[in-house]
Amino acid sequence: MSAEILIVEDDPIILMSQQEIVSSLGYEVMATARSGEVAIELVR
Question: What's the burial of 39, exposed, middle or buried (CB within 10 Å: 0-12/13-18/19+)?
Fold first, then answer.
């Protein structure tokens, strides 16, 4: 079973970097969110 990751970050450059790092480690980035409120809605 592979892990699915939700990245929450408001800075687009940091977000891209985090996505690349997570993907290079073999994890799937299921979604990204720019705020905690959006993240909560995505996981409901």
Answer: middle
Question: Distance from CA of residue 43 to its chain's centroid?
Answer: 12
Q: What is the pLDDT along the chain (44 residues), one digit of tens a residue?
A: 577 899 999 999 999 999 999 999 989 999 999 999 999 999 98
Give residue 8's identity as a one-letter amino acid code: V
The residue with tokens 């892990």 is 3
Q: What is the distance, to the nearest Å, from the Cα of residue 22 to the centroid of all Cα atoms in its chain?
A: 8
The DSSP-derived string for the chain is ---EEEEE-S-HHHHHHHHHHHHHTT-EEEEEESSHHHHHHHH-
